[in-house]
């Protein structure tokens, strides 16, 4: 098999390649003066399984749309070079939050994104903790895999808060299923039954409100779980509400640390003790030392490496997630 990584995501891809004990395959990217670009593999891929690693987030060098376009064009070049199977490894999938119409004549961008991937000939897309699993699976007609970081999070939290009375909390009703799955793994690891709570949340025109917490958090250690953190206001609101209701400690665990500019302010919230994220997105936007002190980054490269190995050898991804 060949594993490629476009230049903007090479550091993360090298972690995966190291786990697999194979080098990244060589490719070429050329930028032209007018803003156009081209990418091509520099090795033979005919009749081979090919994996392309690219997390789709915007950064200081390239926008999310630029990264998406480069990934699609490179997949197209691989298809034209007669690759047998092409798998896009996309830890953070852009536009996954726009999966339905919330206002009249709204776009359903997740579906359009799926059409773009399919148009260039991708055979499989692999993500981790995608925003809405059902929408993701329904949008793509090609094969899809969605990995989960909950075992990694459980490994971290069991020794940290295993002796506490714990409450697993979703910051909105839509995330209850995610909270329940994390609850189940903690129940199994600690051989106790932990409750699940959630907070009301309403959003319109960029404004978020709602303060009611459903569930008992007094004198408990609360672990707020979500798929991503962007501005940080949801985590800050949820943490403050738990503290007002008498929570002893409040932690947050999120897979994707998007961290837009407002996060440096919102996440200074004193009630929020720690924020545990993965390295699906590099930690480059946060600048506030007080916020950076709260961040703990867990490595998901071994999980993706094992996934690639099993996809190449015909192993079970279901068993990987259940082990």
How would you describe what is shown here?
With 323 residues, the chain is an alpha/beta fold. The protein folds into two domains: 2-148 and 301-322, 3-Layer(aba) Sandwich (Rossmann fold), CATH 3.40.50.2020; 150-298, Rossmann fold. It is built from eleven helices and 16 strands. It has helices at residues 10-20, 64-80, 109-119, 133-139, 150-161, 176-190, 233-244, 263-266, 289-292, 301-313, 317-322; strands at residues 2-5, 27-31, 37-41, 49-53, 85-89, 124-128, 143-147, 166-170, 196-199, 202-204, 207-209, 213-214, 221-229, 249-257, 274-278, 295-298. The strands form four sheets. Strands 12-9-8-13-14-15-16 form a seven-stranded mixed sheet. Strand 13 (221-229), helix 7 (233-244) and strand 14 form a beta-alpha-beta unit. Helix 1 crosses helix 10 (301-313) and helix 3 (109-119) crosses helix 4 (133-139). The longest helix is centred in the first third of the chain and has 17 residues, at 64-80. The radius of gyration is 20 Å and the shape is globular. The model has no long low-confidence stretch (mean pLDDT 94).
């Amino acid at each position: 098999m060949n594993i490629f990584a476009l230049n903007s995501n090479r550091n993360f891809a090298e972690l995966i390649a190291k786990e697999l004990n194979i080098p990244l395959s060589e490719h070429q990217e050329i930028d032209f003066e007018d803003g156009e670009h081209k990418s091509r593999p520099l090795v033979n891929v005919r009749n081979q399984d090919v994996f392309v690693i690219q997390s789709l987030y915007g950064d200081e060098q390239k926008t999310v749309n630029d990264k998406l376009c480069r990934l699609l064009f490179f997949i197209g070049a691989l298809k034209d070079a007669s690759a047998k199977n092409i798998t896009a490894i996309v830890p953070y999938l852009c536009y996954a939050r726009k999966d339905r119409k919330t206002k009249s004549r709204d776009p359903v961008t997740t579906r359009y994104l799926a059409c773009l991937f399919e148009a260039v000939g991708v055979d499989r897309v692999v993500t981790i903790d995608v925003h809405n699993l059902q929408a993701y699976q329904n949008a793509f007609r090609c094969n899809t895999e969605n990995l989960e970081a909950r075992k990694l999070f459980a490994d971290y939290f069991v020794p940290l808060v295993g002796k506490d009375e714990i409450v697993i909390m979703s910051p909105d009703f839509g995330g209850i299923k995610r909270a329940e799955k994390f609850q189940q793994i903690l129940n199994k690891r600690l051989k106790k039954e932990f409750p699940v709570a959630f907070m009301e949340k309403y959003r319109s025109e960029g404004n978020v409100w709602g303060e009611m917490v459903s569930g008992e958090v007094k004198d408990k250690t609360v672990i707020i779980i979500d798929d991503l953190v962007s501005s940080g206001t949801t985590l800050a609101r949820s943490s403050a509400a738990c503290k007002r209701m008498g929570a002893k400690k409040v932690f947050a665990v999120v897979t994707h640390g998007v961290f837009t500019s407002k996060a440096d302010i919102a996440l200074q919230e004193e009630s929020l003790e720690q924020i545990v994220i993965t390295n699906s997105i590099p930690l480059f936007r946060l600048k506030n030392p007080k916020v950076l002190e709260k961040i703990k980054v867990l490595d998901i490269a071994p999980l993706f490496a094992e996934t690639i190995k099993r996809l190449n050898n015909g192993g079970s991804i279901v068993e990987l997630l259940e082990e």
